[in-house]
Design a protein that fits this description.
This protein has helices at about 30-40, 55-75, 80, 85-105, 115-120, 125-140, 150-155, 165-175, 180-195, 275-280, 340-350, 395-405, 480-485, 510, 515-525, and strands at about 20, 45-50, 265-270, 285-290, 290-300, 310-325, 325-340, 355-360, 360, 365, 370-375, 380-390, 410-420, 425-435, 455-460, 535. The chain is an alpha+beta fold. It is elongated and about 100 Å long.
């Protein structure tokens, strides 16, 4: 707010007690009664004298630790915390650590505002954890619109009082031998934000691992009623069936042993595109390194983690530089990758951060030295690739430099997973990932030096559908960046595609005139379907 102006973000009427006062030694004295009388004139007398002031102060500390500290670390309001099951579980663990540290120091927290601190802190089963979360949820729901003052300090680039809140609990824990891992982590995150090493964002929640998800519900005889999630293993939804099989974990939960080599057929095509259009689709802190589009078409067979099955993929990437906090990383940014099976899509998106979506992808068919494939979505053919061994690309050395860039450190991805609820406008995860180049490949993997690759000519045809043809494909309008050919590289455009591919029929010259028809033809040729011959295959 402006200087001299403050904003109340929650209602005073939400509280049954506005003031809670007392003497440090617990006595009820005349002076404390006099103070209570004066304060009682405010807001209908919501004042209470306590004989356990230090317990009340520790209670206030607990509330600040579990909500102000956590919401500041996550860069959100109280509502975002209580709306997330994981974040709400973290508040229970934060609160429990405060209560245990207070008890070790000789203080018993008070119960107020419907909070039973013993029931909040002393949970041993999943049911008791849910009870603890319920107390905290009910306490903070009336204050859900509030934003912690520490977060406001972070937003202004100021230091916070984190060391006097969660940091105090951590210090008392160290003094009395009480573990405080959740409060320690909150302190570390906010300290990192203060020093510019981290952003205040909801994605920081991924750093917390509430052990409560592994607590078993028990019957009277002590027998477990629910599964136990092992935090050392990999899971994917639905998690309640146990650990998942992925390229990085077998069905026994151990690292996958590749006793059978995957057969890979890989074709790559490269062409020059519009640098301005490509730059427009790059996330923040990314810089276009060269105005080229790289399309990889891979056929994978005998895939061990898929029990010998296989799948096809097509990835579109551009050479970029990422300007991070600790330096610059150069590599190809994967804009999109289409795959034709769910399992590699899910694992690649969730575990590695690939921008993967589904499409039907034909196997590569070769006849007369010409190899072809096409991709379809909702029955619409949107991409055709052609590799011609009968001719050579026009700019071979330039294409070699693009593909074999010695400065490239690998493939980069921009991972974004939306948060459930809250209008779906916030992120559960949002950060840049790097898949670095393999330093050493297994002995059974064939390595092809750049001078041993097969180079050939090729063509790319992009067909851009309307939303009505491909209803969920809201990304189609963004493909203009990779479809458009740069004006300086017009030599790469071999021929115009028949109008019927894009429009269904040409515009009527009788209706719009020759000049308009000419402009329409030019627009369709340059924006509808682009044919780019420089290509290479490996």
């Amino acid at each position: 707010m402006e200087p001299g102006i403050s904003e109340l973000t929650n209602a005073l009427s939400a509280r049954t007690v506005l003031f809670e006062i007392g003497e440090i030694d617990g006595r009820i004295t005349d002076r404390i009664r006099a103070v209570a009388k004066v304060l009682g004139h405010m807001d209908n007398g919501k004042v209470e004298i306590t004989d356990n002031l230090m317990g009340a102060r520790w209670l206030k500390l607990m509330l600040n630790c579990c909500m102000s500290g956590l919401s500041s670390a996550l860069g959100c309001t109280f509502e975002s915390v209580i709306s997330s099951e994981k974040a709400l579980a973290c508040t229970s663990y934060l609160a429990a650590e405060v209560v245990h540290a207070a008890r070790a120091a000789g203080f018993q927290l008070t119960d107020t505002n419907g909070l039973n601190t013993a029931e909040i802190a002393d949970f041993q089963t999943a049911e008791e954890l849910e009870r603890s979360k319920g107390y905290i949820y009910r306490n903070y729901y009336p204050l859900r619109t509030a934003k912690a003052s520490m977060l406001q300090d972070l937003e202004r680039g100021k230091k916070t009082e984190i060391q006097m809140i969660n940091g105090y609990v951590s210090a008392m824990g160290r003094k009395y031998g009480v573990p405080t891992p959740f409060n320690d982590l909150v302190v570390k995150i906010i300290t990192d934000i203060e020093e510019g090493r981290r952003r205040a964002e909801f994605g920081n929640l991924a750093l917390f691992v509430p052990a409560g998800v592994a607590i078993r519900k028990r019957q009277k005889g002590g027998k477990p009623m629910s599964y136990v999630r092992n935090d050392s293993l990999m899971y994917q939804m639905p998690v309640h069936f146990g650990p998942c099989v992925t390229p990085r974990q077998n069905k026994e939960g151990k690292r996958f042993i590749y006793d059978q080599a995957t057969r890979l057929t890989k074709h790559t095509i490269v062409y020059e595109s519009d640098p301005e259009a490509l730059s427009a689709v790059l996330p923040q802190r990314f810089e276009l390194a060269a105005p080229y589009v790289i399309i990889n078409m891979n056929m994978l067979r005998d895939v061990a983690w898929l029990a010998g099955h296989g799948y096809n993929l097509t990835g579109v990437s551009v050479p970029t530089r990422f300007h991070g906090e600790k330096g610059v990383v150069e590599g190809n940014l994967l804009l999109v990758m289409w795959e034709n099976h769910a399992d590699p899509i899910i694992t690649g998106r969730e575990q590695l951060g690939y921008s993967k979506i589904f499409a039907s992808i034909d196997d590569i068919h070769t006849y007369g030295g010409v190899s072809k494939t096409e991709l379809t979505s909702w029955g619409f053919r949107f991409l055709e690739l052609e590799f011609d061994a009968n001719r050579q690309p026009e700019n071979l050395e330039e294409l070699k430099r693009v593909l074999n860039n010695p400065d490239s450190q690998g493939i980069m991805h921009y991972k974004y997973i939306p948060r459930t609820g809250g209008g779906f406008t916030q992120a559960d995860a949002e950060y840049v990932c790097l898949n670095p180049k393999a330093a050493k490949l297994p002995d059974d993997v064939k390595k092809y030096p750049a001078d041993q690759l097969t180079y050939m000519g090729g063509q790319v045809r992009w067909h851009i559908p309307t939303w009505r043809i491909c209803p969920p494909s809201t990304m189609w309008h963004r493909l203009w960046a990779v479809c458009r050919s740069s004006g300086s590289s017009a030599r790469y455009v071999r021929r115009a595609i028949p109008w019927a591919i894009f429009m269904g029929r040409p515009p009527s010259c009788e209706a719009c005139g020759e000049a308009k028809a000419k402009r329409m033809k030019e627009r369709i040729t340059t924006e509808g379907v682009i044919v780019c011959p420089p290509a290479l295959s490996a």
